Amino acid sequence: MKQLFLLLSISSIYSIANFAHAQSVQAGKEQIAAYSKEWKGERSADGRPRVSDDLVRRARSISLEEAWGVLRNEGYRNQFVGGWQIIRPDQPMAGRALTVTYMPSRPDMENPIKEQGKIEKRSGATNSWPIDMLTEGDIYIADGFGKIVDGTLIGDNLGNSIYAKSKNGVIFDGSVRDLEGLEAIEGFNGWVRGFDPSYIQGMVVSCINCPTRIGQATVLPGDLILAKKEGIVFIPAHLAEKVVVNSEFISLKDKFGHLRLRQGKYTPGEIDTAWNETIKADFLQWIKDNPKEVPMTKQQLDDFLKNRTW
Questions:
Q1: Residue 155, annotated ligand binder?
Q2: One GO molecular-function annotation for this sequence (predicted)?
Q3: CB count, 10 Å around CB of 186?
Q4: Which helix (H) or strand (E) holds 204?
């Protein structure tokens, strides 16, 4: 046991001592692939699962509660985080997660990280490094350990750069500054813990594109993010299509049910419980007669209906 403890201690010391020589500031493609094995689709250049632009677009229109329900049924029980201050509460945001973890800085850790940043040709303060990696459809997601004063991860200058690269905004378990300047960036949005006039101090990036924690949720790079006024749902990439299509189908059912109730064709009891074969047939015919109401492709709908238990 003592030999094992000594071996582990030596290994830990070796890893820390060689940070600047061996460990990148960001997770490598192999590491990202290791904890996203269930994703079988395309990946971004940095190795993150790349949920399609179509699914990202459609996700903005689905109900947060419906998405949460699908994830709950799949065994993902820690995917929602609420209690945010939002720059534009009525403007939903969806995108692919680029994750960042910040830590309180201390010289013996911060200095090797900054030296490694120089080796990797990263410029500026560490809070700007993730911005250089953003691509369209990404969301900059950061664990800023809830710091408000001196925890402002961006202001309006960095906000402009973020929106120019991602056409999206930010989710920070931390704060931002220059609220008026950020509000002036048309299309930019942010879910944060607070606003403060101070500038960032005593914080350093510890890892980019590593699993990070936002509230009670673990977020992986490449997750599909749905942020609305109620809060945020973090959707594992491999479940993105299932969540979106399920949510769209539930929305279609609700739209059809509300229509038939207004028409007086069925009773509330018939619509609000398991549908009989007559209602199911009526619903499927309504879908055929109203293709513009259907957001998913015919193939996605057919595949979904094969396994649907109603």
A1: yes
A2: metal ion binding
A3: 6
A4: strand 203-208
d(CA 88, CA 102): 25
Show the DSSP H helices in 101-204 as ranges.
Answer: 107-119, 129-133, 156-166, 179-183
Q: Are 243 and 67 in contact (CB under 8 A)?
A: yes
**209 belongs to an annotated ligand binding site:** no
Distance of CA 146 to CAs 35, 121, 212, Å?
Answer: 26, 29, 13
160 assigned to a ligand binding site: no
Q: Using the predicted structure, report yes or no on whether residue 4 has a pLDDT greater than 50.
A: no
Q: Is 127 annotated as a binding residue?
A: no
Q: Quote the tokens at residue 178.
A: 């220059």
pTM of this prediction exceeds 0.85: yes
Beta bridge partners of 101: 143, 207
The reply, when asked if residue 156 is annotated as ligand binding, is yes
pLDDT in tens, 124-174: 999 999 999 999 999 999 999 999 999 999 999 999 999 999 999 999 999
Neighbours of 244 (CB within 10 A): 30
The confidence score (pLDDT) of residue 32 equals: 97
Encode pLDDT of 35-86 as tens digits.
999 999 999 999 999 999 999 999 999 999 999 999 999 999 999 999 999 9
| DSSP state, residue 238 | G
What is the signed CA dihedral for 155, 159, 162, 167, rounded to 10 degrees? Answer: 160
Q: Residue 84 and residue 230: Cα distance in Å, rounded?
A: 8
- All structural domains of the chain, each given as residue ranges with its CATH number in brackets, are 33-237 (3.50.30.40), 241-306 (no CATH)
